[in-house]
Amino acid sequence: MYNYLLDKERLRYCYQCGKCSSGCDVNRLDGSFQPHRLLHLISIGAIDKVLKSADIWKCTTCFTCSERCPQGIRVTDILWNMRAMAVKSGHIPELLVHQREVLLKAGRLYSVGPIDNKKRGKAGLNAIPEEHPVIAKIFEISEVED
Amino acid sequence: MGNEIKTGLYLCTCEGEIGRVIDIDSLAEEASGWSGITAVHRDAFLCSADGIRKIREDIERLGLDRVMIAACSPFFKVREFSDLGINRYLVERVNIREQCSWVHRDDTDGATRKARTMLRVFLEKLKNSRPLEPVKRPILKTALVIGGGIAGINATLDAAGADCEVFLVERKPFLGGKVAELHNYFPRMCPPSCGLELMFSELGKNRNIHVQTLSEIGTVTGSPGNFEILIKTSPRHINERCTLCGRCLEVCQKNAVIYPEGFSYPGIPAIHRALCEEGCRRCKEICPAGAIDLDEKERLNNIKAGAIVLSTGWDPFDPTPIKEFGYRRLKNVFTNIEFEKISKEKKISFDEPKRTAFIQCVGSRDERYLPYCSDVCCMVSIKQALFLKEVNRENEVYIFHNDIRTPGEYEELYQKARKSGIIFIKGIPSELRQDGNKKIDFSVFDTVAGERLDITADMVILAVGMRPSNGNIALKDKIGIALNKNDFIESHLQCYPQDTQREGIFSAGSCRAPMDVSRSIESAGTAAVKALKFFRGKVEISADYPVVNTLKCDVCKRCVEECPFKAYYFDDKGFPKPEISKCRSCGVCMGSCPLSAISLGDLSIEQLSEMIDALDKSYLGNDEPIILSFLCKNDAYRAVDDAGIKGIKYPPNLFSIMVPCSGAVNGAIVSKAISTGIDGVLVAGCPDEECHYVHGSMLAKTRLADISDKLKEMYLEPERVRFIEISRDDAEKFTRSVEDYAKELRKIGRNPLRV
Amino acid sequence: MRYAFYIGCTIPVKALKYEISTRSLTGSLGIELIDIPEFSCCGYPVRSMDFFTSLVMSARNLAIAEKKGLDIIGICTGCMAILSEAKEYLEDPIIRNKVNKKLKALGIKEYTGSVKVKHLARFLYEDYGFDRLRERIIKPLNSLEFGVHYGCHYMKPTSAYGHFDDPSNPATLDELINLTGATTIDYPNKNLCCGFTIMGHAEELGLRLAAEKLECLSNIGVDAMALACPSCCIAYENNQKVVGKRTGKEFDLPVLYFTQIVGLSIGLEEEKLGFEFNRIKVDRIAKKLARD
């Protein structure tokens, strides 16, 4: 499904114009982050190198590379998905472990506790449900797909 | 005619390839008693000289008027059986090898039963076959060239130089097209004036050439060899008496006088009336030669031409949609075409050294715009970069590219550019910025160095690609040619690059693909030669074109609408009739007719109907289902032949009839098959996008689905009719489908309508 | 004008002023935003865990709105980008069928693709109409000058957003702020990302990205930054002191949501626009307005 979803065949058309890296502000600040190089590694099958690299976690998902790619490669989404693949192969950043816990419980990225709802009440806003069990179910049924 | 025919039946055992499986002896014995059969001959090697001689002698000696050859596939030994001394439409090839003995080799009984049925069915077809002669029409030895750029001019000169009359039509006021606007051509770097001037003088000298500027194509009628083209000419408002004194230009306050450059053709200005101030007649009043007529009207004239050469040229890609390059928004960002003018007219001072950046592949090799390589841009940028180095050696020039493509001799210029200090960087900037001043800032990732470079340039040239001019789209339907997905003229790029898909129509220059000047001129020569060659022949129109039975026709116009080549018109009595020079005998009209009123010359509705009657529905006994399949000639039939050649087996339950296109199968024929007891009808055509006749297979699919629905209403199983997509290489797929279908039909049970 | 209000995860916890000002503004404009308690996270963080799961999560939210017959309005650009891009992926029947199977297991019939998703600012631009909004402006903010920060996900991916604004030269938020009478400026790094999304993985980089824009706008000396995304606001306002400390600079740049700015111009009181939650004090702005 991933190959289909992200049209990874398209990735093989990449002729390394480097527009993704030229236009990347993260690359400007940190030269080691080179989207075109990551794409090249993926397309030649050296995906392991990509998954182990800290680089994939530097992408801000700003979509500029996807916008400008002359081959219509969804660069952002492909790099984004590399994170998911990294996670599955055991390279899990700490933040993600925490986010996942919160998501499973609260159904949202930030947990909402009584204090938050009290604060909201004071500001004249309605309370937010503190739990959202459906998220655990979504993970359970969807994550098995490959 | 009925039983009066005298058929010679020739059965080939093919050195055992057929005889080992099919009991040819018993077939021969049996067939000799059939009505319509005059002679039966068995041969082990029918395609040999002896075999052919035997057939020819029999025709002569016995007065045979039909010949049935039961042997290999009709696509085999075509040459050997092509000249038997009898009209070829009276010869029927019965394919008992590829589609019988080879594929049913483990079932000799079944194969023999099927072969017998084949003989009976095709004998029935022969009973109503008629001799047909191809129609030959003379060709007018006059050419029309559309588009007066460098390609059109050269095609004109080449054809006219070979004593052919040529009409050259250009919609702009002057000839020369895009190249007239260029600064110079590579690789010799000569200015366009040099070559064009020579060409213009030749144009003027040759009395075979008729040039019409300010002219567009109206309608195109007639057929290859005999086109008739309506030309609409806008008024020029200035005639030949003009002495180029220039006074009109001086008095005009609206820039409405389009003045010729030094070497234009014709060398007379034109007035763009739409720009004129209302009521102003100053130019007319001042003209000392009396050459101006402001009231001149549009003129129409007809041209008769045997062949047409299209040379409608190209337009530069407009880079505005690539927002990140800021074209039109940022200062000092130009296209390469604009730079031609800048360098030609020295619009910019080059006294102070400048830093210039060329960006390659703007629009080209881009999925969203021009998915192809525009062929010329690398060389154009190298040429322009060298110009910058020449005007001021201190100029800094960068070329940002994906790949530099300079094939053949052009590599020399690339070397020269590198030696001159032009810097080539593999990497394309992502965005151009301008902060207040007129300089342009950008970053680029040098993918070779693995480094990011920050560059500030005085000028950025976008190397935009070439796209076909809108002339292609405008002419597509008028002339009936096909365009490829990028709107260039479609052709068989490899073997027949200058032929369009329509006979007698050729292309020259960039309307077919991006080309530089040199290749345009080359292609123009080829197009001219192709036209000349075409003039030497006669147009031969295949004799099997469809005929409309006007006694049945109720003028529903379905055939007119569904004809893939728009060949139908209405005759004097208002009935649809195919213009046979446009017709390709695909039979889609025959399939479309709700009243079964259209028949192909060599395969009529009546013949098909009688063949179905003659088909013994129990040729494999009472319990086995019979599948009647209609196979399209170009793909499915050949794929089924392939099954035989590759030694793939399938059951003899399949009985095939070849049709030109699956779209030729009329619903009435399918219904007739089912109503007379055929268990399953299988129509095999090309996948939609591969259909040789545009939408034939798509129509077939829809019609079959309709019949399927109708069967349901009649309490018959809708599975009894089926369409399958078969490509030329799908032998395995086809045989598998046949096996599955036979199994399915066994499960469904016998057609209750079988007697 | 009834819409499903997609509030997202960040706003109700970390951007109360955005929520308050949005509710006041839409209420006053007659745009009815319906809260949907069944909505969950849009799927953004889940993209880094499992792409397909993220898609199912987005589709579930979309399908819930669809079932209620309501189009979605949101104010978090991240949520809008993820939901819009999910819509784009789900146009493919193969993907949609696969996702719909999962939705069925979650007790949702199906996602058909009929629901529309829009950021409130885009909604005002395309649907409510600037002409209509202009008529409501009774307190023009003529003396104020803003630097607009769009946020990457406001208009990208453009294919998912129907190309409604140009990421190289965006204009719709500027036009919206200009309606109020306030001036907006063009500045060199207008299209720069706020860096928020990588704060958890590459903090240093994230802070440097935020610092660049804060520095640029501070040097120009605008009255405030105007934006339309809670994450960007955290990067530029909540983190402003940290950014300053880490990069050795001192910033004092107020950050306002477009809802607060438009709210002021149509005459809503400051307390109805959540100004009490603005961390960088907006006194200067208040003074300027008082003078007008």
Any overview of this molecule?
The complex is a heterotrimer of chains A (146), B (755) and C (292). With 146 residues, chain A is mostly helical. In chain A, 56% of the residues lie in helices and 0% in strands. In chain A, helix 9 packs across helix 11 (134-142). The longest helix of chain A is centred in the middle third of the chain and has 14 residues, at 75-88. Chain A has 2 domains: 4-88, Orthogonal Bundle (Fumarate Reductase Iron-sulfur Protein, Chain B, domain 2); 94-141, no CATH class. In chain B, the strands form 11 sheets. A 5-stranded parallel sheet of chain B has the order 8-7-6-14-25, with helices on one face. In chain B, strands 16-23-17-18-19 form a 5-stranded parallel sheet. Chain C is of the alpha/beta class and 292 residues long. Chain C folds into 2 domains: 2-120, Glutathione S-transferase Yfyf (Class Pi), Chain A, domain 2; 136-291, Rossmann fold. Helix content of chain C is 49%, strand content 10%. Chains in contact: A-B, A-C, B-C. At the A-C interface, helix 1, helix 4, helix 7, helix 8 and helix 9 of A face helix 1, helix 2, helix 3, helix 4 and helix 5 of C.
Features:
heterotrimer, B: 755 residues, alpha/beta, Ribose 5-phosphate Isomerase B, Chain: A, FAD/NAD(P)-binding domain, Alpha-Beta Plaits, 5 domains, five-stranded parallel β-sheet, 20 helices, 34 strands, C: 292 residues, Glutathione S-transferase Yfyf (Class Pi), Chain A, domain 2, Rossmann fold, 2 domains, four-stranded parallel β-sheet, 14 helices, 8 strands, globular
Compose a concise summary of this entry.
Chain B is built from 20 helices and 34 strands. Chain B is an alpha/beta fold.
CATH class of the largest domain in chain A: Mainly Alpha
**Quaternary structure type:** heterotrimer
Give the count of structural domains of chain C.
2
Lateral strand order in the biggest sheet of chain C: 2-1-3-4
Radius of gyration of chain A: 19 Å
Dominant shape of chain C:
globular
The description of the largest β-sheet of chain A is: none
End-to-end span of chain C in angstroms? 34 Å
| Radius of gyration over C-alpha positions of chain C, nearest whole angstrom | 19 Å
Helix count, DSSP H or I runs of 4 or more residues of chain A? 11
Write the layout of secondary structure elements.
The complex is a heterotrimer of chains A (146), B (755) and C (292).
Chain A: H1 2-5, H2 8-11, H3 19-22, H4 25-29, H5 35-43, H6 47-52, H7 64-68, H8 75-88, H9 94-106, H10 114-122, H11 134-142
Helix pairs in contact in A: 9-11
Chain B: E1 7-12, H1 24-31, E2 37-43, H2 49-62, E3 66-71, E4 91-95, H3 97-101, H4 108-127, E5 135-137, E6 142-146, H5 150-161, E7 165-169, H6 192-205, E8 209-212, E9 215-223, E10 226-233, H7 247-251, E11 257-258, E12 270-271, H8 282-286, E13 299-305, E14 307-310, E15 314-316, E16 333-335, H9 336-344, E17 355-362, H10 377-391, E18 396-401, H11 411-419, E19 423-426, E20 432-433, E21 440-446, E22 451-457, E23 459-464, E24 466-468, H12 471-480, E25 505-507, H13 517-536, E26 539-541, E27 546-548, H14 558-562, E28 568-570, E29 576-578, H15 588-592, E30 598-600, H16 605-614, E31 627-632, H17 636-646, E32 654-659, H18 667-675, E33 680-685, H19 696-713, E34 721-725, H20 731-748
Parallel strand pairs in B: 1-2, 1-3, 3-4, 6-7, 6-14, 7-8, 14-25, 16-23, 17-18, 17-23, 18-19, 31-32, 31-33, 33-34
Antiparallel strand pairs in B: 5-26, 9-10, 10-13, 11-12, 15-24, 20-21, 21-22, 27-30, 28-29
Helix pairs in contact in B: 4-16, 5-6, 5-13, 9-10, 10-11, 17-20
Chain C: E1 2-6, H1 11-14, H2 16-29, E2 32-35, H3 51-68, E3 72-74, H4 77-90, H5 93-105, E4 117-119, H6 120-128, H7 130-136, E5 145-148, H8 152-155, H9 172-179, E6 183-184, H10 203-220, E7 224-227, H11 230-238, H12 240-247, E8 255-257, H13 258-265, H14 283-291
Parallel strand pairs in C: 1-2, 1-3, 3-4, 5-6, 5-7, 7-8
Helix pairs in contact in C: 2-13, 3-4, 3-5, 10-12, 11-12
